[in-house]
Amino acid sequence: MNSGNRRLSARPFNTPGMSMIEMQLLVIVCATILAGVGARAIGQPVVAGEMAVGILLGPAVLGSIAPSLQQHIFSVDALGGLQAIAEVGLMVFMFLVGTELTEPASVSGRKGDTRLILWTSTVSVMIPLLVGAACSWLMSREMDIPAGQEVRFALFLGTAMAVTAFPVLARMLADHAMLATPVGRVAIGVAAVIDLYAWILFAVCTTPVQTLASAVTVAKLLVAPLACAAAIWVARPRIAAWFARSERSRQPGEIPWLMLIVIATIFAAAVLSRSAGLHPILGAFAVGCCFPAGTAASEKIKRDLGSIAGRVLMPCYFVLGGLSMTRDAFAGAGFDLFCLLLAVAVLSKVFGTAAGARMGGATWRTGLILGMLMNTRGLVELILLKEGLSAGVITPRLYTLMLLVALVTTGMTGAFNTFFISRRLFSQPLTCGEVNG
Question: Superkingdom of this entry's organism (predicted)?
Fold first, then answer.
């Protein structure tokens, strides 16, 4: 009996899976630190280096240099724990994305910029969406579209071309002290609205075709953006007022309890979202839209969750994304396809944004600046691609090429901010007064 108890208690510490997850986390965290330092050294945001970690530790790089080592650390049979950690990180990250969204007027600081933001964001999504969908039909043979997925893939590729990584862009502008400039304020507002469009399109892309034909599912997809808007305009102010009223009477020890309540709410919303036939990250996103800002408690919760998700949990998601890549992506016409996807992504996004900004009252110069900023795809694209691969919308080969496109476009925006933008360029007004200037 005693020996059986000893064996039972020792088992969790002796199984290969338990020891392997610790090794995986050690490798991921160390690689993330080094990649972040390297990205900073070349003028890129830390998140660009973190995204590159997944590629470096995957079969495309480490698997080519040391295949036995890569297979030993990240064998398919030992990824269950890493997958669970990545899913938790994704839910927390989507909550944090939702907390950053707000009304266009309050983001820019000027009500007159609302028209510019709405025009720019709408056209910045529509043109890449249409161009990407058209490309999917023109290049169907080269893209290896899975059978029966042609329509959903057309929408998926258009969405991939249209997205902007709002969290990455916000971090870039903050790093360059551009958030307080006129262009920076409008860029954040445009990216926030694009982010909302992107997650609506994401919900459509990840819904199975047979389910999408259901009137009930269509109704749910139509209700989703209204729910997010209601969360931002109705629920968030009321929750913020409650936080403000309870601020004086709250004891410091109560904040951890509030954080646990927030985390429980995030996962409850994810469960409800999945039960409703939508992707669970949309539930976490909706909870973030309700969460207030500006109080000591709410800012501390956001800061602490952001530190955990950004530095430990999400890198696991990046690595899983890199592990899904394939080494033969550039075989045959792969390189030509990559260049074509990259050209379509950059040109449709930059000039689509510029056209929208011009319709909103800005000059072409300002529109092109905004277009370069909106060209960053980062984490949003990675999430879209990985979930699209899991849903069978794209193949591993196309996933690899599009993931590299996301990394290159994010790097292009980082280089644009670092080397080609002066603060004087960001200090001019953007609306009607500049049209004739």
Answer: Bacteria
Tokens of 436: 């004739």
pLDDT-above-70 percentage for the chain: 80
Amino acid at 81: G
Contact, 227 vs 166, CB < 8 A?
no
| Exposure of 436 in the CB half-sphere (CA atoms within 13 A) | 2
> 66-84: buried (b, 16+ CB within 10 Å) or exposed (e) per residue?
eeeebeebbeeebbebbee
Q: Which of 210-224, 244-258, 404-418 has the lowest mean pLDDT?
A: 210-224
Tokens of 435: 């049209």
Instruction: Say yes or no to pLDDT of 339 above 80.
Output: yes
H or E segment and range at residue 252: none
SS3 label, residue 430: coil
DSSP string, 257-281: HHHHHHHHHHHHHHHHHHHTTS-HH
Write out pLDDT tens, residues 160-197.
999 998 878 887 887 777 777 778 888 888 988 888 88
The model's pTM is 0.80
Instruction: Please check whether residue 426 is in contact with residue 181, taking contact to mean a CB–CB distance below 8 angstroms.
Output: yes
Residue 75 in contact with residue 407, Cβ under 8 Å? no
Of the candidates 141, 61, 132, the one whose C-alpha atom is nearest the C-alpha of residue 332 is 141
Q: Which fold has domain 101-313+329-435?
A: Na+/H+ antiporter like fold (1.20.1530)
Written as one string, the DSSP assignment of 33-74 is HHHHHHHHHTT--HHHHHHHHHHHHSTTTHHHH-HHHHHHHS
Instruction: Report the half-sphere exposure of 7 (CA within 13 A, side-chain side).
Output: 4
**Nearest partner of 281 among 360, 179, 371, 205, judged by Cα:** 205
91-141 confidence digits (pLDDT tens): 888 888 888 776 554 554 555 578 888 899 999 999 999 999 898 887 777
* Domain locations in the chain as residue ranges: 101-313+329-435
Q: How far apart are the C-alpha atoms of 116 and 232, rounded to whole Å?
A: 20
